Amino acid sequence: KMAAGEAAGRYRSTMSKSKDPSGLLISVIRTLSTSDDVEDRETEKGRLEEAYEKCDRDLDELIVQHYTELTTAIRTYQSITERITNSRNKIKQVKENLLSCKMLLHCKRDELRKLWIEGIEHKHVLNLLDEIENIKQVPQKLEQCMASKRYLNATDMLVSAVDSLEGPLLQVEGLSDLRLELHSKKMNMHLVLIDELHRHLYIKSTNRVGQRNKEKGRVSSLVKDASPVPLMDVTNLSTPRKFLETSQFSTPGSSSMRETNLLEIKEDTELDPEENSTVFMGILIKGLAKLKKIPETVKAIQDRLEQELKQIVKRSTTQVADSGYQRGENLSQENQPR
């Protein structure tokens, strides 16, 4: 017991001096190496064995005393270790999933970009198909507009169709015949507009004045007024210069003056397009401007000016002669020859 106590004391003193357990082993090896007697070595061996046995007993007692706390600590440690291991595995799996998602997202992004481009292409193709369908109906609609004298609408439709056929739809081979047809109509459209412009500028305006004078003549014959027919009042007649500069004109049967602008002129589908000659001539000029045929229009007006004025004089002379002849017939029936 004393030897065991000494051995334990040496063990404790050695452990207190050094926290490293290898210090005790070095001390024992030094003791065994310095002793010359086998008996001393056996004695030292016995001391060590007894000291270790005592430590085991003390350790067993401590384990028995703190068994519950030790078991709980071990279980807690095992649970923590398992959780850490599971967390590491999950983190590893998450990293792998993230890498996989990144790869898939790159693929999906390329697919989405491809689908987006295809969507734009399909939308453009559908717009072209709709435009082709509308253009195919242009000849029929153009004929209807020309028949109803909706020249501004017809001009807009024709110019837009030709621009499309010679622009985005230029490569469509199936529209070659329609392209030639509409292009030809566009090249000749201004001739119709110029004829209509001359008709209103020289013929319809003078016919209106002549009609007004006929009505005055009928009124004078009813009241048996044999005074000469008054001169034509041309001060209120619209001229192109007045129309473009002041844009003032009087409507038939009305003395009120209105102001208009060539850029603001629009066709009214519910009214007769020729009801107001000034507005109708403005529509014709606007259509000619859209066709870019204003220089040709000016040249045509200059070339036909003398001829049209001679025709006005001829028609006016015929009207005056007819009016005078009719008045003479009326007076002769009343036995009042002159």
Spatial ordering of strands, largest sheet: 1-2
Structural class: mainly alpha
Give start-end ranges of low-pLDDT stretches: 219-238, 240-259
The percentage helix is over 70%
Helix segment tally: 10
Order of helices and strands: HHHHHHHHEEHH
- Number of E-state strands: 2
User: β content, as a range?
Assistant: under 5%
Shape: rod-shaped
Kindly state the mean pLDDT as a whole number? 75
How far the N terminus sits from the C terminus, by CA atoms, comes to: 182 Å
Radius of gyration: 59 Å
Q: Main beta sheet: strand number and arrangement?
A: 2 strands, antiparallel
Biased composition (Polar residues): 329-338
Protein name: Exocyst complex component Sec8
Domain Exocyst complex component Sec8 N-terminal: 46-144
Keywords: Coiled coil, Exocytosis, Protein transport, Transport
Describe the 3D structure.
Residues 45-97 form a coiled coil. The chain is mainly α and 338 residues long. The chain is rod-shaped, with a radius of gyration of 59 Å. A hairpin with a 6-residue loop joins strand 1 and strand 2. Among the domains are: 39-99; 149-208 and 274-330, no CATH class. Strands 1-2 form a two-stranded antiparallel sheet. It contains 10 helices and 2 strands.
